[in-house]
């Protein structure tokens, strides 16, 4: 069974600072995807970044990057030069790459960017 | 593509009534997911389909919940009869090769 764990219920940083959100996961699959989603107050779920487990290179999308440690089953999200608009709930998720692609989410981290 | 489209955006109903939530996935996506989000339980996967076939409905809380996907462009989640504890935001998402895209959700309130 897949499980995803986010151990930080809430985080708060000042605008322009760098913040790292933690995520660990467990899966018996060899081939899988990992994701970070953002949910602002509008409640829309937005895909922030995706990592394929067979790729060693960490994914980056502008100010967002991940630190993927496959052996440790760790997948953290780094937000550089944080902005007020980054305030949101952030969810880590995993899905098997083959077979039944069940998408499983962590509990979420509420991130507040302070002016 | 317009993205995943859910209707209605908001639904208020009385306890005991039937509620039907609708979802149109992104064209070409082969997976469709229904999630429920509450403050207490977070995001729960209720059921998901692959190529219109239900794969895993183990997250459906009770027999009062049912979901169908009659074709690749439409799915419904039905609650009959509804109860106040069903109040939540219900999301539909579709995916292709892993990355899932979500609709804007239906906020259901059962009074």
What keywords describe this structure?
heterodimer, A: 115 residues, mainly beta, 12 strands, globular, B: 111 residues, four-stranded antiparallel beta sheet
Which structural class matches the secondary elements of chain B? mainly beta
Parts with pLDDT < 50 across at least 5 consecutive residues of chain A: none
Largest interface: A-B, 22 and 21 residues
* Helix content class of chain B: under 10%
Continuous helix count of chain A: 0
Alpha carbon gap, first and last residue of chain B: 36 Å
Any idea what the shape of chain B is? globular
Query: How many E-type strands of chain B?
Result: 11
Class inferred from helices and paired strands of chain A: mainly beta
What sequence of helices (H) and strands (E) makes up the elements of chain B? Answer: EEEEEEEEEEE
- Strand tally of chain A is 12
Report the biggest beta sheet of chain A as strand number plus sense, adding barrel if it closes.
Answer: 6 strands, mixed
Order of helices and strands of chain A: EEEEEEEEEEEE
| Count of helical stretches of chain B | 0
Mean pLDDT of chain A: 93
Uncertain runs of chain B are none
Radius of gyration of chain A: 14 Å
Largest sheet of chain B: 7 strands, mixed
Helix content of chain A: under 10%
Task: Please tell me about this protein's structure.
The complex is a heterodimer of chains A (115) and B (111). The termini of chain A are far apart. By secondary structure, chain A is mainly beta. In chain A, strand 8 and strand 9 form a beta hairpin. In chain A, the strands form 3 sheets. In chain A, strands 2, 5, 6, 10, 11 and 12 form a 6-stranded mixed beta sheet that branches. A 4-stranded antiparallel beta sheet of chain A has the order 3-9-8-7, with no helix packed on it. Chain A has strands spanning 3-5, 10-14, 19-21, 24-26, 32-39, 46-52, 60-61, 64-69, 74-79, 88-96, 103-105, 109-114. Chain B is globular, with a radius of gyration of 13 Å. Chain B starts with a strand and ends with a strand. In chain B, strands 2, 4, 5, 6, 9, 10 and 11 form a 7-stranded mixed beta sheet that branches. Chain B has a 4-stranded antiparallel beta sheet with strand order 1-3-8-7, with no helix packed on it. Chain B has strands at residues 5-7, 10-13, 19-24, 31-38, 42-50, 53-56, 65-71, 74-79, 88-96, 99-102, 106-110. Classes of the chains: A mainly beta (115), B mainly beta (111). At the A-B interface, strand 5, strand 6, strand 10 and strand 11 of A face strand 4, strand 5, strand 9 and strand 10 of B.
